[in-house]
Design a protein that fits this description.
Elements lengths: L2 H22 L4 E9 L5 E8 L2 H6 L3 H4 L13 H15 L1 E9 L5 E14 L2 E10 L1 H46 L8 H29 L7 E3 L1 H11 L1 H6 L2 E6 L3 E2 L2 E3 L1 H21 L8 E10 L2 E8 L6 H4 L19 H11 L3 E7 L2 E9 L6 E2 L1
Parallel strand pairs: 7-10
Antiparallel strand pairs: 1-2, 1-5, 3-4, 4-5, 6-9, 8-14, 10-11, 11-13, 12-13
Amino acid sequence: DITERKETENALGEATRRIASLTNNSPGVLYELELEEIEDGTLRANVTYVSRGLERMLGYPPEWLRIPGTFPTITEPGSFEMRQAAFRRCLAEGQAGCKFVYFAANGSRVSVRDKFTLLRRTPKGGVIVGYMTDVTEEEALRRQLTEAAKLSFLGEMAAGIAHELHQPLSAISLQADTLALTHRADSDQHPLVLRFTEKITALCGRAATVIRRVQAFSRRNTDAAAPFDPAVAISDALGIMQSRLREADIVLAQHFPEIHVMVMGHEAPFVQVLTNLIGNAIDAYELAADRRHAPRPIELGITRNGGQVVVTVADRAGGIPAHVLSRIFEPFFTTKPIGRGTGLGLSISRRIIEDMGATIDAVVEDGGTRFSIVLVAVQNELVAC
């Protein structure tokens, strides 16, 4: 009597069909990869399964993605390095994720969020299962929110920018008036004219520098990820915040390595993140119970740890309370008084950092708060100071 066996086989077949239907009709893409470390140190991803959702999302048949070397040809530059870093985190921690942009078969750009979990380890790597979702529309909305937040940042910076521009422009006017009074072609006056001209040039350069920084800060980012020097980004952020730093009596301490290291990402948005963190540190001192707090240090550091670069921004303004620390990256959450903050700065900053395949977190230590940004280092891009 094989009735029971037939019933079991029918039930198994039905369960298999339902699983296949759910998998292939899912709005995302389910896949399985076998990761294997090869001689050059990279992780080769052998595709063992891809759901039909790939064809709906990108227009490529699942079989096409199994062709070795396909991934770098259909993604933005830098995506391969970000995904490699995420694969290694998954092998080390059991779970990881990243975001990057695919070029679909029809030529459109599709932003995806990729999350994966380690199924089992192998002698040369491991097997992971992943789920990829289309977040193109979400990214468009987030960019709009980012633009709105930039306007808020620019509003807060307006007073500082005006202060920076007022002094050199006033001096330019004064020097020009003086030059007009000494314009006679008298040889005794010639050195004086040259001196005034050099002063005017220097002040114009200072004004141009401020304008350049504001333009870079405000420009909407549409470029692909590219290598940049985080030390230069810190310098630009400090330039933008120069007036606030001076007015708040901030003492800066910078700790950089002797050799510079390049990281992968978007420099202008990264400057925005640093500006937000520095501004928050200044606010923390100004809102502290002891308004006479002195000195007021802000420490900025860059350290390299293998394939990662850690950028830190730390203050000694009392630290964030434990019940608040877990919520600081939530949208619209703020402890600042009305009119001092929107509650979007840290939320947007985290999204900018995650879009670069990096991470950001905060800890309370030494009577203050330390933010750490872990970025992906670009190999073989060391530059001597």
